[in-house]
Amino acid sequence: MQLSDWRATYIDRWYPRSLGWVDGTTKFHDVCRRSLEGGEPNPTLLEIGSGPRNISSEFFSTLGHLTGVDTDPIVMENPALDAAYVVTDETLPFDSGSFDACFSNWVLEHVEHPETHLREVERILKPGGCYIARTPNLFHYVSLAAACTPQWIHDLVANRLRALPEQTHEPWPTYYRLNTRAGVRRTATKAGLAIDSLTVLESEPSYGMSSRVIFLLFMAYERLVNSSSRLEGLRHSMIVVLRKTAKSGEGNAV
Question: Which of 47, 233, 40 is nearest to 138 (CA)?
């Protein structure tokens, strides 16, 4: 067995699917799918921050007609997208009421102006449309450490902790301005979006993939915060479902 195989072994041992464990990405995808149930048969979908080929884009593409936007031109190489656009600011290049749903996966932490972002999402959603996002919870140890350290440290250690390939893009700058439950509720209300659900999860220790010791320490934390609902505020990620009310008009101007 090669040394790198210990990660798969540890995941299989401590997070066995045979005993009902569901990884964080699958939980996020399940929320996205359920949020579209009962809607249009071939909905118009927008992924904000699509990036290159990835499993979430591939999943979203099975749900409807998928458009993607990103600040990085590499989005043009994402094969799961029916259409792709490069943006240079937080203005989205679409008419009001264009989409049945929007998705973002690990994007909100990079948004510098959260109210502007959510107002744009509200504008391009059809009445009754939803925005489903997964983003880190600021009060998790990974987010707190990231928020307190300069970008060069993120560039040095973040990808290594997750054991990502060397060619992986360096971490994007983070602001964590829409990464608390209170912040989401407050900003969504200002932008004219209602909260359908807001769930805080702690999944497998993806930041513990650089060594066995770190994995086990982070796993112990996972077991602790999942042991009681009183500790959910310390879990790693938030899955947020926001909805444009059916009574909304064409959306708010930015």
Answer: 233
Q: 81-90 pLDDT, tens per residue?
A: 999 999 998 8
Residue 165 lies in a domain: yes
Q: Which of 82, 58, 88 is nearest to 68 (CA)?
A: 82
- pTM check: above 0.85: yes
pLDDT in tens, 218-245: 999 999 999 999 999 999 999 999 999 8
Across 86-117, b (16+ Cβ under 10 Å) vs e yields: eeeebebebeebbbbbbbbbbbbbbbeebbbb
Phi, then psi, of 67 in degrees rounded to 5: -110, 150
**Where in the sequence is the domain holding 45, given as residue range(s)?**
3-244
Task: Give me 198's structure tokens.
Answer: 């807001």
Residue 155 lies in a domain: yes
